Amino acid sequence: MIDGLLRELAPQVLAALTRRYGGFDLCEDAVQEALLAAATQWPEEGLPDNPKAWLITVAARRRTEIWRSETARQKREEAAALATPEPPETSAVDDSLNVLMMCCHPELTTSSQVALTLRAVGGLTTAEIGRAFGVPEATIAQRISRAKAKLKGASFSLPEVVDPTGVLHVLYLIFNEGYTASSGPSLQRVDLSAEAIRLTRQVRERLPDNGEVAGLLALMLLTDARRPARTDAEGNLVPLTEQDRGKWDGALIAEGSELITRTLKTSTPGPYQLQAAIAALHDEAARAEDTDWVQILGLYELLATIAPGPMVALNRVVAYAEVRGPEAGLRALGELAGGHRVDAVRAHLLERAGETSAAIEAYRLAARATLSVAEQRYLQARASRLEITDR
Predict the structure, then answer these.
(1) What is the largest CA-CA distance in the chain?
(2) pTM score of the predicted model
(3) DSSP character for 159?
(4) Among 305, 251, 302, 293, which residue's Cα sits nearest to residue 274?
(5) Which of these, 79, 203, 339, 384, has the minimum number of CB atoms within 10 Å of its CB?
(6) Rg from Cα positions in the chain
(7) Rounded to whole angstroms, how far apart are CA atoms 210 and 208?
(8) Is 184 left (phi over 0), alpha (psi -120 to 50) or beta?
(9) CA 101 – CA 313 distance, rounded (Å)
(10) Cα(308)–Cα(297) distance, integer angstroms
């Protein structure tokens, strides 16, 4: 309960301090220390009457202490000692979007945007972010430090017309890493995907009329709905066609389907909306063989025209093979660049086409290329099963 509350309040407290004092980097350090103090004191002493005000007060004091320490080195200690500034008022205005936009500033690298977003907005510690991405804590700390140095002097105010494109991209990356971890023993990192959904809900509260914000939220909900069926009891990957659809989260599917249906009626379709529509078609199929692949192929072809990319191209080939057959899919796949996902799709299509030896080789090739242990186990198992049946 306390962890969730701290994550919810972290961006609001940071926004209050930054709006009052400026200097995002200094305020972010102070908020982190206030969160740490709350995590230590609240379980023992109980929640304060106004947790947000408590955090703001503690963070403001800590910010003053840090500032005084720094200004001393710059011979400004005398001015700093004149008075202890009053902490900023607890505003009813939620400036979380301002903080999120700041963390996704276009001058930052994508890796820095992700790390800073998870710490400043998500309330995760540097160590937690490092563990989530399988990166040393020191590396994450360096990314955050460099990011904050770049943000010195950056405006905290939102422009008249808010373009959330960069924010959505970062949230999309965080969700994808949580849903299918790029490395490590686990297929999923649920805390990351859950955090991405929570933050996207916040963005939608601020930008309810933005079709792509709604599209991304719907995409996350419809995708995350399948998570309970994606692994077996031993944590092994279960492909979509073999999943027990009774384990899918019906409430998330209903929410995501309603959201994307309503959004597509009123907004110009964008990449996230199209992907959400595809996810809805998968989720609405009672059985794998009931999937409307013709409509999915049409959506991927539309997606390829407005947001082309390697994954879109590969997924289009998968849909094309379902409609035209595995041999046609293999011919289309031949035009794509490499990567373990391409090899995995090739192996699957070769298996369906009855080219067992080539499929085994492709499964082995894909297994060697991926850094995900769960994917390695799955691909090796597919190859071993084919070897047994081929004898």
Answers:
(1) 86
(2) 0.79
(3) P
(4) 302
(5) 79
(6) 24
(7) 6
(8) left
(9) 30
(10) 14
How many CB atoms are located within 10 Å of the residue 32 CB?
20
Write down the residue that tokens 């008022």 correspond to: 89
Mean pLDDT over residues 143-153, rounded?
A: 85
Strand 371-372 and strand 183-184: the pairing is parallel
CA pair distance 181, 237, nearest whole angstrom:
12
**Pure H helices in 46-150:** 51-73, 77-80, 96-103, 110-116, 126-133, 137-150
Determine the Cα–Cα distance for residues 365 and 347; give it in Å rounded to an integer. 9
Query: Phi and psi dihedrals of 371, rounded to 5?
Result: -95, -5
Tokens of 152: 């010195």
- Quote the CA–CA distance of 97 and 199 in Å, as a whole number: 9
- The tokens for 209 are 């009329």
Whole-number Å distance between alpha carbons of 208 and 212 = 10
**pLDDT per position as a tens digit, 208-245:** 999 999 999 999 999 999 999 999 988 889 999 999 99
Q: How far is 4 from 294, CA to CA, in rounded Å?
A: 42
DSSP state of 372: E
